[in-house]
UniProtKB/TrEMBL annotation:
Cellular component GO terms, alphabetical: cell outer membrane; cell surface
Lineage: Bacteria, Pseudomonadati, Pseudomonadota, Alphaproteobacteria, Hyphomicrobiales
Organism name: Brucella microti (strain BCCN 7-01 / CAPM 6434 / CCM 4915)
Superkingdom per UniProt: Bacteria
Limits of the Trimeric autotransporter adhesin YadA-like C-terminal membrane anchor domain: 935-993
Domain Trimeric autotransporter adhesin YadA-like head: 184-209, 690-716, 718-744
All residue ranges annotated as the Trimeric autotransporter adhesin YadA-like stalk domain in the record: 251-292, 363-405, 477-518, 589-632, 784-820, 855-890
Pfam hit, one: YadA_anchor
Protein name: Outer membrane protein
Entry keywords, A to Z: Cell outer membrane, Membrane, Protein transport, Signal, Transmembrane, Transmembrane beta strand, Transport
Similarity remark: Belongs to the autotransporter-2 (AT-2) (TC 1.B.40) family.
Length: 994
């Protein structure tokens, strides 16, 4: 009997009425003991209005179709013409041949006794009586399986009586066994598994006691001040839960998901491990761009100096770089001044070398009294010349730092000026103002055989100029300009001045600043020396005036090569900048980034090694030979569908589509008379066996031996309590676990409470899973796509998708770029060929062939301070110490600020990496989420749906097939889902009679 067709039971030919009325409801893949639809005593149909029924059967040599209206078998032909030879083939069976009292076999209350037969019944007075009904439910195997629907909600309930009588939402589906109802009360919701509750619109509760919640919008997440956003799937429409607050499940054999900005694929543990591994690779340390060394997390970097020119100190996480009080260098260039082992040379000015002193037609001041004898080679000063002079001016005396007392005679002019641009002098009337220039240029100290300190300048084997006097080293002092000739003058005088004695002048003297705005200062006038910007401290003791740099300097800007510092911040031309507008890495990398802390509150940057480890972990969990290359790129998995291998999910589903096309061809053959319409099982294997209590077995050689287990597919095995095996040769030997897909196999559930990375232990949420969901096996993994963006927190058990991992990658890359740029402009020690540090530090600017100039050096204060050119000209004693004090202070402030900034950024980077590591490992532990199943209702379409879900650390997977006939009268679907070792399975069927 190829199939029976149903329509409204109306008048007409009896045989046609019977054929139109009878509909074969096949229990597709359920493995029930009904055998074939045309075998056994028969099929009985009762409309519920009386005890009569329509019947047909095929037993022994009888194949009749008839109707009953009493307690006995009908006669060959009654007065109404029923059971006539035209409608009954051969002869009418007896009551005994029918299996007993015929009327009892037609009553709905007799459903428990239906053996080797199918009973259809319904109330024709109620809504939906025109369609084929099963009394509101399908009752099979004494209550082990029930199918029920709600005409008011268009919902379907499959399973126990508790589930059949439970509430339901519009178009919802509930599948569950046991005494506790499985409820899908949300519209378009799906609940599969004992006591599963899907109470929200479009939600899916998959597995024993799984419950749903409202979906969470995860548009962005902020970790220690760093905001990660632009997640794909950030606005999920619904939730799929495979557990509850206390019942968690793990998902195994997950294929590697795509990691990109738009990816909603679930990532597995191997991908997450790869990112974590990359994030913990540490950073590289180089000196002058060479001799790179790996600094791993926990390693120590020793900052040292080998030539004694730098003093390095550490305070907590701060490192201080100071110039040593005594510097030793080969040469020193300060503007036009050059200092090396031969001595001191000022281009266009004086020089003092091993060859002698050349004043270059300029004055030599602060000359002590020289010996005046017939054999003396000492230089004589103005005071000595004045003693010889017969005329003396009444004028006034001018001294600097208690030395070089000069007589200013009437009519003489004192020109106060600055030659290196570090002082700005101005005169107002008889008042003179000394200010530091806004942009300062400073210098430093020792070169070869030339030694400069607070005592003065000494050239080994040559001249010296110290507080004890000037020793020309038995060399000539040439080109000495005319010195001041006064009673207190300490200027050196030349032979011309000694030969001619100056005339007395009483007309006073002139005062100028930088050669401008000359004013006459007469005898008895007062000259007021002051400072207006606070950068210069002037003091007078008696007739002595002291000029000192202020302890705290204030300037408009500072230029050092390509580096410019002003009130807006620090800018390096063609490089990074740190201003009030923020930090710009200048399109350069941040390298040598230490592992950042990966915590829920971390703001550390993560490095490439941490991200590589996370990607590696995800790739491992995705399986399918997915792995991470050394450059961080991820090689995707390969999947097998029906013994064919596919490299992408799209191609894998293409293989599924091809198999569905084959199914469609088979269905077409069935409709053409090749078998039972719409449903067919083609197998010659052994029968399925449901051995466990409340178990279901479907398919050839399928065995469900565990209590409450479900086994669907040829050779599928569900042998543990609550286990589910779905697919050919799928095996679920572990309690509450699910093997989903052909060849899938579960393994013992493993509780992953945390992990240790580089000696640091991290706890995970969802660390007590009750079962495992496997979507493949080793070497045959599968990917899960369309995963909504999961919440990222320390308690979250949501799955994360590829776009969220991609956002972490971008954050790490941006931070790494900044660290690389900082490294380019850091001060580094020289190294030996074996990589050890030298006690030297070489400064190298844009041009490696040009020496580096230290500009903007203030006047030194203390004994070992650096001096600038101005101080060297004005006096090399006290001025030298003051310059060093300012240099130390300025260097300390600059390095403290730079170190504080670097420490802050490295600390933030470390926290971010730790946060990323924890979040990524949580994602690997909690599984993934997928959308609910959806079938194609268009005529003649056979559709397949697959989905996975995630909620609070647990995951689930659902599979389904749906079919709509060409005339749209018949619709059917088969679905199976699992979570935490508990499986639900359902089939739906509807037929429209008009």
């Amino acid at each position: 009997m190829p199939g029976l067709f149903s329509s409204t039971f109306l008048s007409g030919n009896f045989r046609n009425k019977i054929r139109d009325y009878i509909s074969c409801f096949c229990l597709f893949m359920f493995g029930l003991s009904v055998n074939h639809a045309y075998a056994g005593p028969g099929i009985f149909i009762n409309d519920g209005t009386d005890d009569g029924c329509i019947w047909t059967f095929d037993k022994e040599d009888y194949s009749p179709i008839g109707d009953y209206f009493g307690n006995t078998a009908p006669a060959d032909k009654d007065s109404a013409g029923r059971n006539s030879p035209a409608s009954v083939k051969y002869h009418i069976p007896s009551i005994q041949q029918l299996g007993g009292a015929a009327t009892l076999k037609c009553l709905s209350k007799d459903r428990d006794t239906q053996t080797d037969r199918v009973l259809f019944y319904g109330n024709s007075k109620e809504q939906g009586s025109i369609s084929l009904t099963l009394g509101g439910e399908l009752f099979v195997n004494n209550g082990n399986l029930g199918l029920g629907g709600g005409t008011d909600t268009k919902a379907m309930r499959i399973g126990s009586m508790a589930t059949l009588t439970g509430p339901s939402g519009l178009r919802s589906l509930a599948i569950g066994a046991g005494e506790i109802a499985t409820v899908a009360s949300g519209d378009d919701a799906i609940a599969i598994g004992t006591a599963a509750q899907a109470a929200h619109v479009g939600s899916i509760a998959l597995g024993l006691q799984s419950t749903t919640e409202l979906p969470s919008l995860v548009k962005d997440v902020t970790i220690n001040g760093i905001k990660l956003s632009a997640f794909a799937g950030s606005n999920p429409a619904s939730v799929l839960s495979i557990g509850n607050d206390t019942l968690k499940r793990s998902i195994t054999n997950v294929g590697a998901g795509r990691v990109s900005k738009d990816s909603t694929d679930a990532v597995n543990g191997s991908q997450l491990y790869a990112v974590a591994e990359q994030a913990t690779l540490g950073w590289n340390l180089t000196a002058n761009g060479t001799d790179k060394s790996r600094v791993s997390p926990g390693d120590t970097v020793d900052l040292s100096n080998s030539d004694g020119n730098f003093v390095i100190g550490k305070h907590g996480t701060g490192v201080t770089f100071n110039l040593a009080p005594d510097l030793k260098v080969t040469s020193l260039v300060a503007g036009n001044t050059f200092l090396d082992t031969n001595g001191l040379v000022i281009t266009g000015g004086p020089s003092m070398t091993v060859f002698g002193i050349d004043a270059a037609h300029l004055k030599i001041s602060h000359v002590a009294d020289g010996a005046v004898t017939a054999t003396s080679t000492d230089a004589v000063n103005g005071r000595q010349l004045f003693a010889v002079s017969e005329q003396a001016a009444s004028g006034w005396s001018l001294t600097v730092n208690g030395m070089d007392k000069s007589r200013v005679a009437p009519g003489d002019m004192v020109d106060l000026s600055n030659s290196d641009g570090n002082l700005v002098l101005s005169k107002h009337g008889t008042g003179v103002t000394f200010n530091l220039a806004p942009d300062l240029k400073v210098t430093s100290l020792v070169a070869g055989n030339t030694f400069l300190d607070t005592n003065g300048l000494v050239i080994t084997g040559g001249p010296s100029m110290t507080v004890s006097g000037i020793d020309a080293g038995h060399l000539n002092i040439r080109h000495v300009a005319d010195g001041a000739v006064t009673a207190t003058s300490t200027d050196a005088v030349n032979g011309r001045q000694l030969f001619a004695v100056s005339e007395q002048a009483a007309s006073g003297w002139s005062l100028t600043v930088n050669g401008m705005d000359k004013s006459r200062v007469g005898p008895g006038d007062t000259v007021d020396l002051s400072n207006s910007d606070g950068n210069l401290v002037l003091s007078k003791k008696g007739k002595d005036v002291t000029f000192n740099l202020a302890s705290d300097l204030k300037v408009t800007s500072l230029v050092a090569g390509n580096t410019f510092l002003d009130t807006n911040g620090l800018v390096i031309t063609g490089g990074p900048s740190m201003t009030v507008s923020g930090i710009d890495a200048g399109q350069l990398k941040i390298s040598h980034v230490a592992d950042g802390a990966v915590t829920v509150t971390s703001t550390d940057a993560v490095n490439g090694s941490q991200l590589h480890r996370v990607a590696h972990t995800i790739a491992e969990h995705l399986g399918g030979d997915a792995h991470v290359n050394a450059d961080g790129s991820v090689i995707g998995p390969q999947y097998t569908v029906q013994k064919k291998r596919y490299k992408t999910i799209y191609d894998a589903f293409g293989g599924v589509d091809e198999n569905l096309a084959n199914i469609n061809d088979i269905l077409h053959d069935i409709e053409s008379g090749g078998g039972i319409k719409y449903f067919h099982a083609n197998s010659i294997g052994a029968d399925s066996r449901a051995l466990g209590t409340n178990s279901i077995a479907v398919g050839s050689d399928s065995v469900a031996s565990g209590e409450g287990s479900i086994s669907v597919g040829n050779g599928a095995q569900a042998s543990a309590h609550g286990s589910v095996a779905l697919g050919e040769n799928a095996a679920a030997p572990d309690a509450n676990s699910v093997a989903l897909g052909a060849g899938s196999k579960t393994s013992e559930v493993v509780a992953t409470k945390g992990t240790t990375i580089n000696g640091q232990y991290y706890d995970f949420a969802g660390d007590a899973p009750s079962g495992t969901v496997s979507v493949g096996d080793k070497g045959a993994e599968r990917t899960i796509t369309n995963v909504a963006a999961g919440r990222i927190s320390v308690e979250s058990t949501d799955a994360v998708n590829g776009s969220q991992l991609n956002a972490v990658n971008q954050a790490i890359e941006n931070l790494a770029a900044g660290v690389t740029e900082n490294d380019k402009f850091s001060v580094k020690y020289d190294r030996h060929s074996d990589g050890t540090k030298k006690n030297s530090m070489t400064l190298q600017g844009w041009d490696s062939a040009t020496p580096v100039v230290l500009a903007n050096v203030a006047d030194g204060v203390h004994k070992n301070d650096a001096v600038n050119v101005s101080q060297l000209k004005a006096g090399l004693s006290t001025t030298l110490g003051e310059a060093k004090a300012y240099t130390d202070q300025t260097a300390l402030q600059t390095l403290d600020q730079a170190n504080a900034y670097t420490d802050k950024k490295f600390g933030k980077l470390n926290e971010d990496i730790m946060a990323t590591r924890i979040e990524a490992r949580q994602a690997a532990a909690i599984g993934l989420a997928a959308a609910s199943l959806r079938y194609d209702d268009r005529p003649g379409k056979i559709s397949a749906a697959i989905g996975g879900g995630f909620w609070r650390g647990e995951g689930a997977v659902a599979l389904g097939l749906g079919h709509t006939s060409e005339d749209q009268r018949m619709r059917s679907n088969l679905s199976a889902a699992t979570s935490g070792g508990n499986w639900g399975m359902g089939a739906g069927f509807s037929y429209t009679f008009n």
